[in-house]
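Morning!

This is the sequence you dropped in the shared folder:
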Amino acid sequence: MATTGGEWETVAATDAGFDPGLERKLLAGIEAGLLRDVHSVLVSRGGRLVLEHYRTAPDESWGMPLGTVSFDTGTLHDLRSVTKSVVSLLYGIALDRGLVPPPEAPLLAQFPEYPDLAADPARAGLTIAHALTMTLGLDWDEYRSYADPLNSEIAMENAPDRYRFVLEQPVVHAPGTRWVYSGGATALVGAIIERGSGRRIEDFAREALFEPLGIAHFEWMSGADGVASPASGLRLTPRDLLRIGRLVLEGGLAGGRRIVSQAWITRSLAPAVSTEDGLGYGCFWFLGEAPALGRTRPWMAGFGNGGQRLWLMPEADVACVVFSGNYNAQEAWVSPTRIWREIVLANLSPQ
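The structure's back. Tokens below.
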């Protein structure tokens, strides 16, 4: 089994309860053009690596071209919004340490520099939980392309004060009543972590999460104001993102060491609201169900622009990382979803 900071134990797919030909089926899908713009696919079960596939393809980092990249075990890749799920873990760790207020705490009390916003009765009921679950009720539009300056996350990055930009958006729904996808919500949680820990989020992440998991190599992209983006800026290797997935499957343990409390893992993965696509949403985690091992079973995932995915199915003890290059495309969800459902879950056997 993979240990903290150690190498993954690699086994044949059949030894981990998969049907034979797992990688062959993946390759057939790629070569047939059914699975597009795939960069890396990793699958683990029971903490053992059963599939690891890399390709050579053009890539970018936060919109900046990197040329043609030969992906391998050491190649960093944009997580894009899978970063949000990592931030959920960081908030949980900070909460466990008493560094940040609980989710029920008033949100605007964490930003005392905006007394005018705090005095608005329509915003008085906002809590940290509303940010964690993207139910702030504030106007936000991330459905435009991220190449469009009117996209709310891009506009936030370009604003002179990113936190005021988020918090002063018009109130369009009562807090807690409707899910609206918002990188601004994650920016607020990132600020709360930084203020509570007294460190930049990347430095807190290094000490509190990455070093305990043996993650030594990462990048965290920053905006023009030098603030690392909690919404989309993290870059990790696929194996290291898989380590984070394993941490969640183990209930916050890594190598027998408690990294984040089971209480936070449970709360963050509990459905708090439904998305417009019919999925559930916890604290920066998407939640759903899919057929596996003879019946429908729950999964949770971090989703990122371009087809970045961290899929987890606790009942089958399976984790899957997909890195892709289909950035800003509306159909980018198709290939990673097919990999998860038609390659990974469809080929599971009882152990």
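Headline: Residues 1-5 have pLDDT under 50 and may be disordered.

More detail when I'm at my desk.
O.
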